[in-house]
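Could you help me review a protein record that somebody else here produced? What it holds is a sequence and that sequence's fold in token form. I have pasted the whole thing underneath without changing anything:
=====
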Amino acid sequence: MTRRIVLAVLALIAAVLGSVALPLGILTAGQDQRAFTDETVATTTTLANVAEERLDDGTGERALHRLVGRLAGEDMKVSVYDRTGRKIAGTTPPPAVPPARLATARRATAPAVYPLDDAVQVVAPVRNDDDTANVGTVALIRPSAQVDHQVAVLWGLIALVSTAGLLTAALVAIGLARWVSSPLGHLEDAAQLLGDGDLRTRAPADTGPSEVRRLAHNFNLMAARLEALVHSHQATMADVSHQLRTPLAALRLRLELLGQDSDDFVAAEVAGAQEEIRRLSRLVNGLLAVARAENLTTAPVLVAVDAVIGNRVAAWRPAADEQGIALSTGALEHVHARLGDGQLEQVLDNLLANALDALEPGGSITLSARLAGDRVLIAVADNGPGMSDEQKRTAFRRFATNSPDGTGLGLAIVDRLAVSSGGSAALSDTPGGGLTVTIELPAARPDRGSRRGASASRAGGQGRPGPGQPPDPPTIT
């Protein structure tokens, strides 16, 4: 913005100076040139009048020589000719006058002006007292160095004033642009931090134009209300989690005690009730996970995607081997993505849990990652039964599941986590059969992440399950 404002102001000032200074310089220079020519013509006319006394009356010879000497002292070249073209007076060396100009002057009644490279030549007839005939001719060459110097000084002053005006305008424009753009830059930084999850960020509201200050003030109000809303929602989730999990745990314990002293029929019913309670617990956990993903405020960090994939594959391989499923990595480029700390682990855990639940023994799961422009593409492909087109359209909705024991929240969590990080999730068919889930995330270079103060997420994440210990409980669709 600063550069655009400065360029716009400079263009405006340059246009004003061009429309005023240039015409003024041209007009003044033209007037100096005309004044110089008129003065030269007047001097030549005076010379012709003095020469007339010598040529027509035979007197004034001394006056003519004095005038010629004075003009010679002013670096002028003068020649006086009689009616036959014979030179009777003048400077040494005499001015070079083409014969054609002398012949024209003998027939003329007024002086003729001939511009030269660095001088002006005037050839004038000498008229008699009655102004009825020419009695001779005078020629005068006057150097134009003085007027050329005046014009050069004039243009130099115009250039100096214009340059000073442009520099002053540039300084004023820079100050104005910084006055306007600096608070806007702070507001942009605050908006970026707020979008990255720092709900405590605020923008300075005491600098810049009144419109920008009002904008910053309204932004701060919005940020404060958003912070209060998110904190309230997080507190509500914590309360709901506590209020639901505690009675469910107590109910499960009572049913276990009841089943110990019951006959086979009652024990079977109690076991069924306990299974429903476990399913309800998984559903509560899944709903809370979806709510956390939809209201995520974690600041994004730099994540080494290949390292996280390698860690999660190692953690899930024992569970896959136990089911007779091959879990491996395909093409893994060394790429980094920007997302919340631990989010990629949650995404991969849910996808691997879903894939293991859908596959039969002998199946395979392959994870890969690559860079596509400014995006990172992570693919989890299996060779299971896959999904129909209708199932793919609804897979990311809550409670959309084909498994009687599933909650239908795993892919919903994956989609919410990807979207909250500025990415997306998509489903496609695996070549040869099966389902491929592609996660698209914003890519980041390591130097950019370090400038933004983001630390790389450790592969596996602190507090993540160790090898052979999938997340508890895994969300299965």
Notes: The longest strand covers residues 134-143.
